[in-house]
Amino acid sequence: EMGLEDTERTLRHNKWLMLPTNVEGVAIHDLHREGPT
């Protein structure tokens, strides 16, 4: 169930689903840290 919870939490952050604008094309998000988004 933790994988499902992580997925649901990720999908609630619409800006995390946007493509990165940096040249490398990589965005990293810490799913296990509570706090501001």
Structure explained in plain terms:
The protein is built from 1 helix and no strands. The protein has 37 residues and is mainly alpha-helical.
Describe what is shown at a glance.
The chain has one helix at 2-11. It is an all-alpha fold and 37 residues long.
Nearest-integer average pLDDT: 75
Please provide the count of β strands: 0
End-to-end distance = 23 Å
Residue fraction in strands: under 5%
List keywords for this structure.
37 residues; mainly alpha; 27% helix; elongated
Q: What is the topology?
A:
Blueprint: H1 2-11
